[in-house]
Amino acid sequence: xxxxxxxxxxxxxxxxxxxxxxxGFVVDLARDGVDGLxxxxxxxxxxxxxxxxxxxxxxxDILAGMRRAGCETPVLFLTARDQVEDRVKGLExxxxxxxxxxxxxxxxxxxxxxxxxxxxxxxxxxxLRAADLELDLLRxxxxxxxxxxxxxxxxxxxxxxLLRRRGxxxxxxxxxxxxxxxxxxxxxxxxxxxxxxxxAKMDDGFEPKLIRTVRGMGYVFEDKTx
Length: 226
Description:
This protein has 226 residues and is an alpha/beta fold. Helix content is 39%, strand content 22%. It folds into 2 domains: 2-118, Rossmann fold, CATH 3.40.50.2300; 127-221, Winged helix-like DNA-binding domain superfamily/Winged helix DNA-binding domain (Arc Repressor Mutant, subunit A), CATH 1.10.10.10.
């Protein structure tokens, strides 16, 4: 699942992104309100986490702009201001939850998962399926032919990315930026190793094979049963 974080404090933003990525989510991070609204209004996210006090545009205005654009993405507010009036204002604008800084990341993650499970307004599916493979996005579980497959957070995120964009050849540079949040270095084999380990878990011993290498280009998820 893809989450938008809008946070201008560099340390807090990087901390949130790293923690959510390690929990298996794909995360976009915006540093100011204008960029946050531009991304948030696209409706491409399962959840948006918004700081209230931001440069150029505050979190309340981002939320109002998202709702005017018809975007019903669930929103969790983060703020250092623990005032009843602030919480009421955010909720009246259509926020789904409110967390006061400082907070424990475990609490934020629990609230994120609760909002995603609630998901009444989210267009994100709870499961992704192809052939006999099933990804449960909320429980972060994978099964193939009814057998449970244990994946690391990175492996799950890689498989989710490939499955969401099935039939599309994904270059290593895109995988590196989306899953490892880094620029692709042709001298590193981290992606090849990760794909090899993923294949060993969810392709070896099963038919059809679902992940294919396109030499010189990247990787593609193909479901030949469809």
